[in-house]
Every structure is written in structure tokens, then in C-alpha cells.
Design brief:
This protein is an alpha/beta fold. It has helices at residues 17-31, 55-65, 81-93, 104-113, 168-171, 186-196, 212-222, 257-270, 281-297, and strands at 4-7, 38-43, 75-76, 97-100, 141-144, 154-158, 162-166, 176-179, 201-205, 228-232. Strands 1-2-3 form a three-stranded parallel β-sheet, covered by helices on one side. A three-stranded antiparallel β-sheet has the order 4-5-8. The protein has a two-stranded antiparallel ribbon with strand order 6-7. α7 links the parallel β9 (201-205) and β10. The longest helix has 17 residues, at 281-297. The protein starts with a strand and ends with a helix.
Length: 301
């Protein structure tokens, strides 16, 4: 199969230092695999409430300024909703998706009655309240029935982090596939998109590593292939938290070729690559490809 990687930003704000690290890593990973490999860009704008008008085009321009150009025209999730509808219908037909009427407060109260407290940044492990029906409540979401999948630890190998495992039923519970008000959940959309686009190698930020087990379960339920995974180091802010749009991360400056090269160089150092010695982005990228191959492509995927 032709090696295919992708960068899939959400257009909720411009690229910042952390997102450029993920973009650069995914581009290098594909280029290190030879001339036939493909690098794709997918604008993940399915959650239209959070996306900003014109931001997808702005991100594409930032990437182009850094010479990070896709091998095919970019895809947009808002143009792919029929595929998500079909995937949800398949899960419903197989008894692997059910409607849920619980609000976040309902879940917190149910967990409190079970003696569980929700920690900051922690998962709300869904207690299965609506597995046997809505009990007169209106549906708020569709959930994936993890309890109907084979139980126990799901194991896989991350090309950077090494052996990983997670018991999704115990540590996450039945997770959301779609909210009743329309937006598709990241888990379902990314699984459908990666399979449809033939993605063989997912390279993304380490903050998304915890999502991998859920996505593998969905791939198994839908009969889709599982790509290899590599999660890159996080860029952190002064407070120690992951640098993100939510905590005010500054947009990268790509207004001039020199500024774009400086942004790329910073991203490369975060990935453990040597500082750029070339005078432009394209030449710097070419110089990092063999380094990336030595660092990661010899590891099991």
C-alpha cells in the first residue's frame, strides 16, 4: 500500500508553535518514505460552532509559506458528512451505537453516586445510564457501545512512545459519536476520514495519544484498517500546560521567508532535529528528511 500521511488542523485559530511541530513531523515522516508517499491536508471543520470564517484558508497559507505543500488538494470535513452518516448507520445496524439523553451534569451526578469524582483534564467515564433506553429524556447524543466490544486491555505500539495499552470500557466508557445538535465527534470523523483517504501513518501531537484506543475500536467495529501511530512531543507554555489556542498560543509568523524559516527551525528543534543551515524553507526541509528517517523510520510501526 502507498504510504500516506496527513496533517489535520482545526480552523479554530491560526497555526501556533505546537501545531507547526505536528505539521512538520507528519510532512517529514511521509517524505522519509520515498517519492511515492503522499502527504495530505484535511481541514477538520466538522464542529462548525468552534471554527472561524476564513481560518482554514489562512492555515493553508501559513503552511504554504513554510513550503509544507500537500500532494493533493486539501479536503474539508464539512464536505464529507455523508460518509459520517453512513458510518453511524453501520454502527447502529450492528447494535454498536445508541442514543443518550444525559447532560454533563447528569453524568457528574451519576458518577458522584458511584463514588467517582471528575479530575481536571480527566475523562468522564460514562456510567452507561442510557444503555437500556432514554427513560423519557430527549436524545442529546449518539454513543459508541464499548461494552459490546471485546473487553480488556487494547494494546498497540506507538513509534515514539513505545508499547501502549488502554481498557476503553473501564477508562473511557461509551463515548460520543455525534451530538444531537449536529456536530460530529472527532473520534468518528477522524476514523472515517483516515480510512477513506488511505492514511497509513498518523503523526500528531502527544495530547491525542489517549484517543488512539477509541479510534482502534471504531476501526475494528467498522471493518477499517488501523494505521501506524506516532505522537510527537508537546510544546508547552510558561505555565507548563500544552500550548494551544485555548490558552492563548501566539500564531506563528510566516509573513516573510526569514520568519517562516525561523518558525520551522523552532519546530525542528522541538522534534530533536539539528538547527537549519539552509537559507530557505524548502532546502531546510530537504535537509531534515534523512535525520527524521534515522530517528523514526527504523522503529516498528
Amino acid at each position: 500500500m502507498r504510504a500516506t500521511g496527513r496533517f489535520a488542523p482545526s480552523p479554530t485559530g491560526p497555526l501556533h508553535a505546537g501545531s507547526l511541530v505536528a505539521a512538520l513531523a507528519s510532512w517529514l515522516d511521509v517524505r522519509a518514505r520515498g517519492d511515492r508517499a503522499r502527504w495530505l491536508i484535511r481541514i477538520e471543520d466538522a464542529d462548525t460552532e468552534r471554527c472561524l470564517p476564513g481560518m482554514g484558508a489562512h492555515i493553508l497559507q501559513q503552511l504554504a509559506d513554510c513550503a509544507l505543500l500537500p500532494d493533493e488538494p486539501p479536503e474539508w470535513q464539512t464536505q464529507r458528512t455523508a460518509r459520517y452518516e453512513a458510518a453511524l448507520a453501520t454502527l447502529q445496524a450492528r447494535g454498536l451505537a445508541y442514543p443518550c439523553g444525559c447532560s454533563r451534569k447528569d453524568i457528574d451526578l451519576a458518577l458522584a453516586r458511584l463514588g467517582h469524582t471528575h479530575e481536571r483534564h480527566g475523562e468522564r467515564v460514562y456510567p452507561g445510564t442510557c444503555r437500556d433506553g432514554l427513560h423519557g429524556k430527549p436524545a442529546r447524543a449518539w454513543r459508541f457501545a464499548t461494552h459490546r466490544m471485546p473487553g480488556g486491555e487494547l494494546q498497540w505500539t506507538d513509534r515514539r512512545l513505545g508499547p501502549q495499552q488502554q481498557d476503553v470500557q473501564r477508562e473511557v466508557g461509551d463515548f460520543v459519536l455525534r451530538r444531537a445538535d449536529g456536530p460530529w465527534a472527532y473520534q468518528l470523523a477522524v476514523v472515517v476520514d483516515d480510512a477513506e483517504q488511505g492514511v497509513t501513518d498518523v503523526v500528531r501531537g502527544e495530547d491525542l495519544a489517549d484517543n488512539t484506543a477509541r479510534q482502534i475500536l471504531l476501526q475494528q467495529a467498522l471493518g477499517l484498517p488501523t494505521p501506524s501511530y506516532l505522537h510527537t512531543p508537546l510544546v508547552r507554555g510558561a505555565d507548563g500546560d500544552k500550548l494551544s489556542k485555548q490558552n492563548g498560543a501566539t500564531a506563528i509568523d510566516t509573513a516573510t521567508p526569514a520568519a517562516a524559516l525561523a518558525a520551522l527551525d523552532t519546530a525542528a528543534r522541538a522534534l530533536g532535529l539539528r538547527p537549519a543551515t539552509a537559507g530557505d524553507c524548502a532546502a531546510a526541509l530537504a535537509g531534515w528528511v534523512p535525520e527524521w528517517r534515522d530517528l523514526y523510520n527504523s522503529r516498528p510501526s
